[in-house]
UniProtKB/TrEMBL annotation:
<keyword id="KW-0813">Transport</keyword>
<keyword id="KW-0067">ATP-binding</keyword>
<protein>
    <submittedName>
        <fullName>Peptide/nickel transport system ATP-binding protein</fullName>
    </submittedName>
</protein>
<comment type="similarity">
    <text>Belongs to the ABC transporter superfamily.</text>
</comment>
<dbReference type="InterPro" id="IPR003593">
    <property type="entry name" value="AAA+_ATPase"/>
</dbReference>
<dbReference type="InterPro" id="IPR050319">
    <property type="entry name" value="ABC_transp_ATP-bind"/>
</dbReference>
<dbReference type="GO" id="GO:0016887">
    <property type="term" value="F:ATP hydrolysis activity"/>
</dbReference>
<dbReference type="InterPro" id="IPR027417">
    <property type="entry name" value="P-loop_NTPase"/>
</dbReference>
<dbReference type="InterPro" id="IPR003439">
    <property type="entry name" value="ABC_transporter-like_ATP-bd"/>
</dbReference>
<keyword id="KW-0547">Nucleotide-binding</keyword>
<dbReference type="InterPro" id="IPR012700">
    <property type="entry name" value="PhnK"/>
</dbReference>
<dbReference type="Pfam" id="PF00005">
    <property type="entry name" value="ABC_tran"/>
</dbReference>
<feature type="domain" description="ABC transporter">
    <location>
        <begin position="6"/>
        <end position="245"/>
    </location>
</feature>
<dbReference type="GO" id="GO:0055085">
    <property type="term" value="P:transmembrane transport"/>
</dbReference>
<dbReference type="GO" id="GO:0005524">
    <property type="term" value="F:ATP binding"/>
</dbReference>
<dbReference type="InterPro" id="IPR017871">
    <property type="entry name" value="ABC_transporter-like_CS"/>
</dbReference>
């Protein structure tokens, strides 16, 4: 069994009376894509923040490459801060309105060092091209971009330090439905091109199927079901999971499903 890139073992998170995460174990393996689904308030984002070490745990452990980082200092978390990147739900609040697109994508590269100004700009342009934008976006401001374009910039920024794995917290939920399929298609292509591993958080099981092989279902902070995504979709053990399955797919998604069936 390969050592997970990033994992949590028996983690719980308590906010006062609320047990937001209740004794959950999760492992992200090299090259794998895991979907994390559950209704709003089921603890998905809290679990993701635990894995990012942005949220302290009440119990349990977090491991990076098999090493326990639960009690690590900020200096001890430097490898995690580079190796694990995240794309959040709302791209509108994720970008500084006073900075052009170049700066947020260049920032993680600047911290890593080793690139002069020209090579840094070329690398940023390359990342923008990779997410379907291109060098002509380098000097644009966020207010000149659509929601989908802003989310592409956030994805480029997350890809810059070559993360393993990439964590995605409902990355299409704040976008127009017409744009959601395009972002999902982008994430599928990026995964193939860069052999990325994903933790993809969504409340839509059908969308998870397009990106992930495995799925974990959370309900009120507890893991209620996990397994291969096809198996969970076709034979959900829980009525709760069946209810999540009835969520509507964004338009354009059926084309992606069709392409999958045809291959
Ligand atoms: N910082 C916080 N303080 C207090 N309660 C929180 C905090 N963050 C999340 N919660 C609570 O924890 C539960 C899980 O929230 P969350 O992880 O955001 O769920 P999801 O992402 O699945 O919608 C909810 O009951 C939420 O209200
Ligand atoms: Mg959430």
């Amino acid at each position: 069994m390969t050592v997970p890139l990033l994992s949590a073992e028996g983690v719980s998170v308590r906010f006062g009376e609320t047990l937001a995460v209740d004794d959950v174990s999760i492992a992200l393996r090299p090259g794998a894509a895991l979907g994390l689904v559950g209704e709003s308030g089921s603890g998905k984002s809290t679990l993701l923040r635990v894995l990012l070490k942005l949220q302290p745990v009440s119990a349990g452990r977090v491991l990076l490459d098999g090493a326990n980082i639960t009690g690590a200092s900020e200096a001890g978390l430097r490898p995690l801060r580079r190796a694990v990147q995240v794309v959040f739900q709302n791209p509108h609040s994720a970008l500084n309105p006073r900075s052009t697109v170049h700066d947020p994508v260049a920032e993680p590269l600047r911290i890593l060092g080793g690139l002069d100004r020209t090579r840094l700009r070329d690398r940023v342009a390359g990342l923008l091209t990779d997410v379907g934008l291109g060098a002509e976006f380098l000097w644009r401001y966020p207010h000149e971009l659509s929601g989908g374009q802003k989310q592409r910039v956030c994805i480029a920024r997350a890809l810059a330090p070559e993360p393993r794995p990439l964590l995605l917290d409902e990355p299409t939920s704040a976008l127009d439905v017409s744009v959601q399929a395009q972002i999902i298609e982008l994430l599928r292509g990026l995964r193939q091109r860069h052999r990325l591993s994903y933790l993809f958080v969504s409340h839509n099981l059908a969308v998870v199927r397009l990106l992930c092989e495995e799925v974990m279902v959370l309900r009120q902070g507890r893991m209620v079901e996990e397994g291969p995504v096809g198996q969970v979709l076709e034979h959900p053990r829980e009525a709760y999971t069946r209810a999540l399955l009835s969520s509507v797919l964004p338009p354009g998604i059926t084309d992606l499903l069709g392409a999958e069936d045809g291959s």
